[in-house]
Structures are given as structure tokens and as C-alpha cells.
Amino acid sequence: MALMTDDRLKILLIEDNPADALLVKEMLAQTRSFSCELTHVDRFEKCGMLPDRERVDIVLLDLTLPDVQGLETVVKTCDIMAGKPIVVMSGIEDEDLAIKALQEGAQDYLVKGQVDSDLLARSIRYAMERKLSEDSLWKAYTELERRVQERTAELVEANRVIRESEKKYRMLVEQASDGIFILDEDACIRDVNSTACKMLGYLPEELLQLNIRDIIPDEDLSEVPLRHREVLAGEKVVIERRFRRKNGTFISVEVSAARLEDGRLQTIVRDLTERKKAEEAIRRSEASLAEAQRIAHIGNWDWDIQNN
């Protein structure tokens, strides 16, 4: 647009009344705010025939033309002169009509007979400034909308990846042969797998109401306190303990605890019942063998063939 430059404003006047058109031409000639080049057509259909309508800076529009009237005039002008500011010049003094004209895309509404040269010049300048502001706001809005859509698409994809990752993680956790407990910094149980539930005889929702201390015998905690503070500090802790089942019986377990990236603790619990049974069986077997040797007055000996 030619606003605030030395270029001549290209003004299109759409007015079917020759006297009104002449009056507008005279007022524009009197203004000292800018110089202009006026093109006049007396019917709306002639707008589409203008060879250089893209060079138009602003449109002065009458609402009562032979081929189109009322607000439809504004709507059609906005379509054919897209992006150009429009000042309505109507013989109808109607505030509601003026508001509706602005809502349909006009930048100002003037009443014929109440306009002088200075008012017309101010209205033209105001209309062009307002149109520039509207275009800038619209450009900013569309750019923001584009960025929002791009960011939304990124978030949707990120969430999809996270869901897939969580699904795979949950599958691995549920298929694990060891019990898995996820604890918060206070050692409250926040998540468990099915193996942990079977190991202790609890339902998942029951375990999620407990602190890990609730399933460790008090005397064991007195002898070997929890080391979750060490784990929170980044250390990996492996220790043997006893856990209390829901039915009150005890189970020997090996506990391996480590800190997760989100600050929670992952505790992997391995049931040592079978290993303890095997170790006890070996001890009994060794004790039985020793007793048998003592009774038979024999011992274990090695024969060195080369030296004997």
C-alpha cells in the first residue's frame, strides 16, 4: 500500500450517482494529506473488468448500486478486491447497518452529506492503517496457528511413541519371572507386576496401599534397615531379606534396587525358596556324609599315583 509514502494513492470509487462521484472527486482534490489517482466505476460488475485492479490501494463503496445493494455489496467487494481496505459511503444513516458493514469486512462507514474533505482524508488513512494492522494480526495468527499445529503433531507423535514404549515396558515387566516393585522416595509401593502379586499373595490394588516396610518383618528391619536413601543417591543395592506374605508366612528373597531416571526406585525381587532348599539339602547331605565317615572310621584321602 502507498500509505505514508510519496506514491500517489490508487483509489477506486464505486458509485452510480454522478453528482456524488463528482463531490468525492472534488474533496479528494482538496486534501493535502496525500495525492491520489482516482478510478471511478458506476456498477459493481465493472470492478472485475478493471485491468489494473491489483494496483488499487483502497475502495470507496456505495451500498446502493444498480446491480447489487446493501451488505451484499461489501461481501462481494471483499471477494473481488481481496486484501484491499474498504470505506463505505452510504446515504443511509443507520448505526446497525454500519456495524454490520464493518463486521463483513469494511474498515469505515461514512454517511453522505456529513463528509468533508478532511473527514474523507482521515477516513482513508484510518482505513488503510486499520487494514495493515488487521493483515499483520492475521499473519501473526496464521503463523501461530501453524506453529501450534506443528507442535501438536509433534506432541501427538511423542505421546504415541511414549505409549508404545510404555506398552513394551509393561509387557516386559509382566513377563518377568522376578517380582518387580516400583517405589517412591518414601518407599511407598507405586507399581507392581503380576509375579510380585503371586509371590506375596496380594492383589495389585492391595500392594499399592502398602509401604515396602509393611512386608518386611520388624526384627529384620531392626537388624538391617532399608537402604533406599543410598539407592536414591545413585547406588545399586543387592541384599537378601525376608518378605511377609499376605497369609503371614515368610519368603526368602534377593532384592536388587536401583534408581530410575524419574527419581523412583525399581526393586527386583527374586524368590530364593528353591535355592534355600537346595542349599539346606546340600548341608544336610554333607553333614550325613561326615557322620557316616565318622562312624565307619574313614576319611577323605587322595592317592598320588606318581609318588606312591
Task: Provide a descriptive summary of the structure in words.
- This protein is an alpha/beta fold and 308 residues long.
- The protein folds into 2 domains: 9-134, Rossmann fold; 176-276, PAS domain (Beta-Lactamase, 2-Layer Sandwich), CATH 3.30.450.20.
- It has helices at 18-30, 71-80, 95-104, 117-175, 194-200, 204-207, 218-223, 228-232, 273-296, and strands at residues 9-14, 36-41, 58-61, 86-90, 108-111, 179-183, 189-192, 237-244, 250-259, 265-271.
- Helix 1 crosses helix 4 and helix 2 (71-80) packs parallel to helix 3 (95-104).
Provide the low-confidence segments as ranges: 1-6
Strand content: 15-25%
Helical content stands at 40-55%
Task: Assign the CATH topology of the largest domain.
Answer: Rossmann fold
Number of strands: 10
CATH class of the largest domain: Alpha Beta
Give the name of the CATH architecture of the largest domain. 3-Layer(aba) Sandwich
Question: What is the number of independent domains?
Answer: 2
Task: Give the full name of the CATH homologous superfamily of the largest domain.
Answer: Response regulator
Structural class: alpha/beta
Q: What is the count of helical runs? A: 9
